[in-house]
Amino acid sequence: MSTADSPLAALWERDAVKIGVLLAGIYLAYVLVGVVLDYGVRGQLNSIATLTFYVALFALLSLALNLHWGYTGMFNIGVVGFMAVGIYVMAVVSKAPATEAAAGSVGGLGLPLWVGVLAGTVAAGLLGLLVALPALRLRADYLAIVTVAMSEMVRFTFLSGTFQRFEVGGLVIGFGGGSGLLLDFGSPVEQLFDALFLGGVYDGLVGLTGTVIENNPQPVTNGLLYGVLLLGAVGLYYVVLGRLGNSPFGRVLKAIREDEDAANALGKDTKAFKTKAFVLGCALMGLGGILWYMTSGAITPNTYRPRLTFFIWIALIIGGAGSNTGSVMGGALFAALLFQGPRFLQSVVNNLVDVEAPSTFGQALAPIAGAGDLAPLGFYVIDSVRQLQLIVMGLVLIFLMHRRPEGLLGHRKEPAASVELERRPDRETPYTDGGETDE
After folding, report:
1. Residue 164 lies in a domain
2. Phi/psi at 45 (nearest 5 deg)?
3. Which of 39, 232, 306, 335 has its CB 3.0 to 4.6 Å from that of 58, i.e. a possible disulfide?
4. 357 falls within a domain
5. What 8-state DSSP symbol labels residue 303?
6. Other CB atoms within 10 Å distance of the CB of residue 269
7. Are 320 and 406 a contacting pair, CB within 8 Å?
8. 387: part of which helix (H) or strand (E)?
9. Which helix (H) or strand (E) holds 254?
10. What is the DSSP letter of 177?
């Protein structure tokens, strides 16, 4: 039996196994870093919870962007605008009410949290519809310009004093202007367990955490459970988008991606298909924004600058556009290595090597000119790694576009039919562009 036909090779061909192995490697690396940094149990659990939070969120948003770019070929670089609409609408709907008597306060409608989440998701989708109607007549760079302009218009709207605070039906609501909004929703994890009548289970989990953490185990438990909740959302996104991609609707989207004129010539209303895909993707981005910031305690408009969209694009490119599996793996790698990794690298080096880094770039370069000593420059880079993070991301992006533009998993091939076709001994299963299937 050849190596390619071995059970181990067959197991590795499963996308779920690839994702599982990657996540296991990332978590193992972070645990080892925690050991090097002498983290206690609380520190290790907090590190795992934070890692899970960012891995899940970048995977979620990469999947949503993959629906636009990977499936349909729509160049959306306004992702952060839909995220902002989702969380701001959710905040206005679910924040506790404030009255005019409370000077300077900004409240909300006081509706249940799940209503706010639904409202924010729908609002992001409706904004997508509003943008899609005129913008989807444009293609490539022109669509990109419209979407990034939209995201900046959203940010400046939330910054505006006009919408900072106003009264509706005796309730003082608004977007808070430059001061932002306080989010006083409590723990969404506790609310979810209570809504499912599992309050006793939640208390038991807190007690279990308390057996290894004596001081205030509840925040650690909430962080871990919220990470698990986000991973569940990733799984839901993955399944829904996978089924969508293999449906007749999804195959039309892929046809539009490859050649919109040809799809239109075959009688498909490409504008309607693109509009539906754009609205759905925007709604998922809005939900991603809600899940990201609903536990942050406060939100401000300047959080939603275009660089966050840039991060999500890098995550998608790392994994490979057009592949849901690649989107999840790219989001995990970006979160672990490029987003959170520099901080851990800095901590590890400072913990292992007791050397004072130069305070300026000139001081770091001087030893190279004198004695050819590169160590000061290296220590300066590590000490300033958080400030240099965007430069590192840009270099990684340039490298990927030159060396691996198809992403981590390469070009994934999709079946031409959603059902298994009868095979003939002299003919392979037909694919849209030949090659292997993306499960």
Report:
1. yes
2. -65, -40
3. 335
4. no
5. G
6. 11
7. yes
8. none
9. helix 248-258
10. G
Q: Among residues 341, 350, 285, which one has the least CA distance to residue 123?
A: 285
Whole-model pTM: value is 0.88
Whether 31 is in a domain gets the answer: no
Q: Encoding tokens for residue 195?
A: 């809504």
Taking the CA atoms of the chain, what radius of gyration do you get in angstroms? 24
Question: Which of 389, 267, 271, 270 has its CA nearest to residue 334?
Answer: 389
Amino acid at 332: A
Residue 176 in any domain: the answer is: yes
Q: How many domains does the chain have?
A: 1
- Looking at residue 113, its amino acid is L
DSSP single-letter state for residue 360: S
For residue 170, the SS3 value is coil
* Among 151, 113, 115, 156, residue whose Cα is nearest residue 131: 151
Residue range(s) defining the domain that contains residue 230: 60-304
What's the token pair of residue 279?
Answer: 């609205």
Q: What are phi and psi of 413, to 5 degrees?
A: -95, 140
- Tracing tokens 């790698």 back to the chain, one arrives at 333
In the chain, the amino acid numbered 343 is R
Per-residue pLDDT of the chain in tens (439 residues, 90 and over written 9): 455 567 777 777 788 899 999 999 999 999 998 888 888 889 899 999 999 999 999 999 999 999 999 898 888 999 999 999 999 999 999 988 876 545 556 788 889 999 999 999 999 999 999 998 887 777 667 888 889 999 999 999 999 888 888 777 777 788 888 888 888 787 888 988 888 888 889 899 999 888 888 788 999 999 999 999 999 999 999 999 999 988 999 999 989 888 888 988 988 988 999 999 999 999 999 999 999 999 988 899 999 999 999 999 999 999 988 889 999 999 999 999 999 988 887 777 777 777 677 777 777 777 777 677 777 777 777 777 777 788 888 888 888 888 887 888 765 555 545 555 455 445 554 444 434 444 4
Pairing relation of β-strands 181-182 and 298-299? Answer: antiparallel
CB 128 within 8 A of CB 274: no
Q: Are 183 and 94 in contact (CB under 8 A)?
A: no
